[in-house]
Amino acid sequence: MSVTIITTGGTIDKIYYDAKNDYHIGQPQAPKILARAGVTLDTPLISLFRKDSLDITDEDRALLKKTIEAQSGQKIVITHGTDTMAKTGVYLKGIPGKTIVLMGAMYPAEFRDSDAVFNLGAAVMVAQTMPEGVYIAMNGRVFDPARCVKNVAENRFEEI
């Protein structure tokens, strides 16, 4: 079995640029996270784009959908920024024969106390165990993208 990882950017991949006192989206962190965790599952990586989720357009979502549909594997994990993750999840609903799990992080993976490692591990497990459909794996829970929201004040996802 394999789980294809598609990266789109977001906080999980952000790195700190000291010269500018700012954050920018860097290289995908998922391969490093999985390697450090000793994951032996086949996880092909597709780095689709590197955007903050607030900058993701419907054209980007169409490209993501087309990329998912073109995959021979049925299990897909998408690393995505948290601000528009639910919107992208709703957009991807209806792709037949695929279990699609979106995940992100509230803090960059490079941060010691980031939730990125936990959320990626959860997403990989959800992709392997849930039936075909689209899910969000965040904060130790599995959500329907149409029935969840990011609670900015509490820094977590919640069911609505």
Automatic annotation (TrEMBL):
Its EC number is 3.5.1.1. SUPFAM superfamilies: Glutaminase/Asparaginase. Pfam families: Asparaginase. It comes from Simiduia curdlanivorans. Residues 3-155 form the L-asparaginase N-terminal domain. Keywords: Hydrolase. It comes from the Bacteria. This is Asparaginase domain-containing protein. GO terms for molecular function: asparaginase activity. PANTHER family: 60 KDA LYSOPHOSPHOLIPASE, L-ASPARAGINASE. PROSITE patterns: ASN_GLN_ASE_3.
